[in-house]
Fold:
Amino acid sequence: MIELSQNSNYLIGSQADIAVLATKEHARILTISDSHGDWRGLMRIVKQFGPTCDALVITGDCWRDLEELLELADEDPSVRQVIPPVLGFVRGNGDPSYFAISYDIGKNNANARTLPKGSVIMPDKLVLTANGQQILFVHGHIEGVDYGYNKLGLDAKMLGVHYAVHGHTHIPAFEQRGDFTFINPGSISRPRGGSPASFAILTVEKTFIDAAFLRINDPMGEESSYTLYNPF
Structure:
């Protein structure tokens, strides 16, 4: 069960679970982006796929849905049971730098000491370690991913990482450029470019990362179903 505490590295979860993820073999990361107010869709995905994943990372334009998820998790132990033990997120162009919830989630976060009690900080970037590999997560608007991967690739190179995950374009992607791989899970509520509503599950191995993309067959329905989807 996830510990509802945001740490100074901006991850939510216990230090023990974060340490386990860092070395866990075959680590699975549920990756969602650009929910844009579709908190019910977010919850359906988390309930179905969260229990089999080691982390959940949301790559921006999600703060109201994240707020709802955190409030529900505090109120209902069954929701805490389905959220993976490590939760990360980054700020999108539609997100604030921080938002408030009803409990003191940031009591262990030194960066939140000057903010109102209950503040959740949304960082511009997040570097997550899983199975010995470091992965960069951003939304992508600051890095200009609409126009290519030059800046994001430079940022990844400066940080010494080979995998970068982003959102913003609402178009799923898995692109290898030299030593770097760029992944976009797509949008769960507002797909673009003829793509379906989608998300991705990353499997982190010692020497590579694979991504399984899932299509949301009826994103506006009460009971969504999901099928594997190849965006290429």
Observations:
- The chain has a mean pLDDT of 95.
- The first strand starts at residue 27 and ends at 32.
- Residues 63-75 form the longest helix (13 residues).
- The helical segments are 15-23, 39-49, 63-75, 77-82, 150-159.
